[in-house]
Amino acid sequence: MKTIILATAATAALAIAPAASAKIATGSNVSDMTVVDSNGTSHNLSDFSGKRVVLEWTNDGCPYVKKHYSTNNMQSLQKDATMDGDTVWLSVISSAPGKQGYVSGAEANDLTTNRGAAPTAVILDGEGVMGKAFAARTTPHMYIIDEAQTLVYQGAIDDNRSANPATVDGAKNYVREALNDLDAGRAVAESDTQPYGCSVKYK
Fold this sequence. Notes:
The chain is α/β, with parallel strands linked by helices. The chain has one domain (3-199): Glutaredoxin, CATH 3.40.30.10. The chain has helices at residues 12-16, 63-70, 73-82, 105-115, 129-133, 174-183; strands at 3-4, 29-30, 34-36, 42-44, 52-57, 87-93, 121-124, 138-139, 142-145, 151-155, 198-199. A five-stranded mixed beta sheet has the order 7-6-5-9-10. It has a two-stranded parallel ribbon with strand order 1-2. Strand 1 (3-4), helix 1 and strand 2 (29-30) form a beta-alpha-beta unit. It is globular.
């Protein structure tokens, strides 16, 4: 199994710059990365060993993100995923200062409250270090890391690529199905899908 050791926040920019667009292969072990949330608290992905981690790239100005929040699709998925306490949900904002979706910590917290969202934490990634390390391309772009810190899913939230909120009903939710597979002790049936949405607004 290939192991990907991601640099800490202080050094990652130099470490990943030459391969910022390189996709981490599903099945790789994502063993280390330090990130800071909207409350100024540092987290390391290695701290979550033994838990599942869902990563959600988000931008509140993106119509594709609005599609999933206006219909309560993203919020219900967050709540269902984290209900048992064994799953961590990190919403990641990689929009650079001055670009669509960039928010301060306080603004991120207000968004969480006003949207009725339920992430474990909102990660502020204005420098794009985490986003480029994961080759996050769109908002939303979804990833699931299992208890052994292996990347087991990456791609779209569902199979309907429209920004129309009416298309949420009836769509195949890849993230929910992947989590169901893990709950059942099965390998994730669809582990790589094509993400859709707005481009991540990197620097």
